[in-house]
């Protein structure tokens, strides 16, 4: 029992560390467009994102419940504490590595793939909740495609609305609009991304026998929201540079269109309790916006590298978490 208590405390600490890292890793994507177009100074954008992420994180719990029960059944998982700890360590390593190299990788893919890899190592492929897991994977695959389409549509609409406006006046007006769209983007990020950590912490409480339902306790919600808000306040300027400038050259109208498109996709997923990758959605919406303006204006070489990272994340972290679980199992 003492060892179980130690493991559960470690899981909570690592879960909050994951959320903190997620804050400066993924939230950078949410404010990348507004910083790159100079609608907001970096420090102001980061502080605003921190507040809006916190508010978004404590408002909803549907995605957290999906993470708790849709990947594996926490009530049927033996060695659940070791599985969750291995998954967290794996996801943290992956997030730090991709952040260091400035690659907008997905924290969602990292944690979901890590949970699956460690759980399969512990209990075999039968432990997966296939209906829930497939639903989550489908959302992760389809959301970037929907975001590209939304980015294209919103940018096409903006081109029609501002077709008679002069460029300088349009830029001034759009920069003001972008402050609002960046705030909305950060809020929706909190409604989806922070809940993944809440779900993991709830899994740990169930595995320890300290909770008998998948309800998300208030202290879990506040702790996860606070960790993400603090992480956001540090910022992630390497990711901002990649998302905000290396996919395409952004103007204020492009940034506002991308923000509105991606925020609508992320919030739509939150309302139907599906975790999606905010990184994928935001990057894809920028590609859609660029395609609506000029297909050749999108730097598809950079886009291909991002897509490649998307593809390799889940299998890579699954293998990594399996190895970490094996080592933890030997140790404990």
What would you say this structure looks like, in words?
This protein is mostly helical. It has one domain (about 1-330). About 80% of the residues lie in helices and about 0% in strands. Helix 1 packs parallel to helix 4 (about 80-100) and helix 2 runs antiparallel to helix 8. It is elongated, with a radius of gyration of 19 Å. The two termini are about 15 Å apart. The model has no long low-confidence stretch (mean pLDDT about 85). Keywords: Membrane, Transmembrane, Transmembrane helix, Transport. GO terms for molecular function: phosphate transmembrane transporter activity. It is found in: Membrane. It comes from Edaphobacillus lindanitolerans. This is Inorganic phosphate transporter, PiT family.
Walk me through the topology.
Blueprint: H1 2-36, H2 42-57, H3 62-70, H4 80-100, H5 107-123, H6 130-161, H7 167-207, H8 218-234, H9 237-246, H10 252-271, H11 278-293, H12 300-331
Helix pairs in contact: 1-2, 1-4, 1-7, 1-8, 1-9, 1-10, 1-11, 2-7, 2-8, 3-7, 4-5, 4-12, 5-12, 6-10, 6-11, 7-8, 7-10, 10-11
